[in-house]
Fold this sequence. Notes:
With about 950 residues, the chain is mainly α. It contains 47 helices and seven strands. The strands form two sheets. It has a five-stranded parallel β-sheet with strand order 2-3-4-1-5, with helices on both faces. It is elongated. The protein starts with a helix and ends in a 25-residue tail after the last helix.
Amino acid sequence: MLSRDGEVSALEEALAAAAGGMGASLLMEGGIGSGKSYLARAALRTARARGFEVVSARARQAERTLPYGVWHQVRDQLLGAHEGPEKNRPPESSAVTSAATPEPATPEAAAARLHRLLTAHATRKPLLLVVDDLQWTDARSLHWLGHLMARLEGLPVALLGTLARDHTEPGDEEPQGPDTTSVAGVAAEFHRRVVLRGLNVDAVGYLLSSSFGVPMDTGLARACHASTGGNPLLVQALLRELQRSGVGPGELSAERIAELGSAEVAETFVARFESWFPGIGRALGTVAILSRAHSAELVAELAGLDPGETADALHTLVRSGVLEATEEGVTFSRPMVRTSFLAAMPPSERARLHAEAAKALHAAAAPREEITAHLLRSDPVCAPWACQILVDAADAALAAGALKEARACLERGMEECGAEREPELLRRLGHVELADDLDAAVPRLRCTLDLIPQVGDRRSAALADLVQAVVLTGDIPEALRIMETEVAALERQDAEKELRTGTRALLELLRLMDGRSTRPGPSASRAALAEVARTPWVRRAEAAVPALHAQWRGRRREEAVSLARLALSEPVGTVNEDAALRIALLLVLARAGEHEEARETCRALLAQATAEGSHTVAALARAALAECAFRMGRLQESAEAAYEALEHNPVVPGREWLGSAHARCWLGAALLESGDLEQAQRVLLDDGLPSCPPGITLPGLLFHRGRLHLAVGHARAGLADLEECGRQLRLRGWADSVVYPWRSEAALAHSRLGNVATADRLAREELDLARAWGAPHAVGAALRALGLLAGGDRRVTLLAEAAAILRESGAALTEALTLGDLGRASMRTRKVRKAREQLRAAMALAEKCGATALVRELRQDLIETGARPRRDRETGPASLTPAERRTALLAAGGLTNQEIANRLYVTRRTVEIHLSRAYRKLSISDRRELNGMIQDDPPAPPPPAQRRAPATASTRSCA
């Protein structure tokens, strides 16, 4: 028997005493379903196996008033054991069963008669006498038991009784007089009393595993134990419900277990107490609805019962262990009993009781959280206070970053609000959905806009939310159409100047994103913007227009930086407010060479989005962080941010949204520079990826895809993608932008294909544009490309100039590439010492960036100069490649190989290879040992598993 060592030991001692001729008695006490009767039956089997005669009787609640009920059960079994020829019967048996023997006249006579029969029976072999449910035993039988207990010493008899917790019925008076004995009095006479406790977690886990036929997780066993308290009746009922539900072992969760209830459990508890309290089912159902009943009066009010009787019932239920009393009120001692009463209750009755509970608690000025919990599950109560409480609860949930709860409160509030509050709640609901479900947010915000016909701040706020949601889905033409319609309407209605200014600025931003902008970007200062508008969102939009114009037109970098900072300094109410525009502005900083500032701004926005629970904005911020980190040469950080951004998809699966498309571009770039060509191809080239990325991200996708084609040796395919990137930029009016320096990359491709003149022309055009923009990293990269196309001393001169500019640019990866090229050029001019210095500096930077393919190339170059570069570590965490480390971290986090493959865009076989290499380097045998090995020891990347295409002076990337 599981988790019953103490009880079995006590039974063994009682049987041993009886076998030795010394009578013993044992009483097992427990609540409903604690396993008393099961242990009694187990005792009978054990005693019978040891040669004992066994006699058992079970008292029943319905027969408690019938005299001699248990007495007759024991007598009949003892007599049945002696059936046969008269000569074989003990004389006492013949006397007791004689037809002429009258019914006992008194309890004393009955007790004496049965005692003689039992004594005669016990002379043959030891006897086990079991009386189950002692609390229902009639008074005459109790008297006999008392008589037996006083004479048990010296008899080879073991008496086992079971007693339910709190055996006294309400209203019962203890029997009085010389011919009666109380249950408590008899119980006190037992030699030993054992209180049954619930099964432990291990026992529950064993039963759970046996039910499913496979080993189950310990966490699930704990969840079952927490729900049932280890009560055997509840555990078995829970397992039956799990089997009925058809849930498989892999689908089972602690949350699912906590929600499960069994109607038969509720029926069992009602049947146990209904004879005492006819309304016990309603009372327990009401406690289940309340979860924690503050007073008997509240339960009585909701259940329609008498307050005094209800108080007595709750008191009895607490004594019985069904309920427990705390300072906050009365609640179920085992959660599954509550869920069982809820499961047995019709949905309409549950909703009605929740509504009544909300009303009663509101009238009693209960805490808002308690009222809200009932309102969320109730029918509409049609009261203004209900709407306000739900709105306040939504505000509190938003402040805590609990968007799911905020959304539920606002959706429920829509059912309670009047027409005057409907637009407000719709807009707030759309604002919440913007954080997690763009497909739901867009129609919600459209409806909001339709319900606010009046021009003003409310309509403009709803408009801004709607346009942002549409932009994030990637449908910029639709966002532009909405804004054009709104601007035209504002002009017709001669709306307030500030409002018209702000909407025109937003319209211009959308036109710029869609490639239709014609407005020049005027200069602006904080003072000038303050004169134009008093509203932060208008000032932000007005500053953003010239900043983004400057970026995409490739002019006035310093002004773009100043205006971007100005716009980002404007206050916002929540992280969702103008999130897409603020991320576009911080990318202006990154593309202008203010890398560290852009990265820190992005990380702050990500932290705020995470704190507020805005998954969409957090994913968008991670996508932007992937670009910022890549431009700084932080390849591992870039890849990790991009992977995390791709995990969130607020639109229909299979579609790209703005965040996922941007993250995919920079993830491919990071994987390429890290040497993981296989994964880079899966991210950027696989046919299984979404086919229609948002138009604004198309140039970036083409640019990075072209670079990847060049890296794997497909020069013509790469050149086609790069030239298409340039065409897309020209179509959008961004021809002079150096955000994606496609000309430099195309120049290298043309050089490989032998088109020297075209290559030189494109490289010079890129350098002119980079100097016009003025960002050091852009100028340095363009100089490097031109240097790679040159020869002799001119190559050295151009590369040295590029390296000098890049030294203070913050673009570590581009600097490492340039120094490596400069070192090779120095070798060709026989400046060996200088070449070693440059190659060592390049390798140090490349290792810091995690550019493992470049590190390997530079090491080989150093060896060719006669240097002896240090060897990489071959074991330990520092020896893992970025791909191996990412795979190992996900495996340590509990993901299966297939789940890791899906997340990293690789095959399952690739995951297996990465893990086997990681195990070998870490000297471990399986994933269970990964946790302590890699989490706290981020490594410097070692040589890659794959090497990039052979590097020549005309093929290395300039990005």
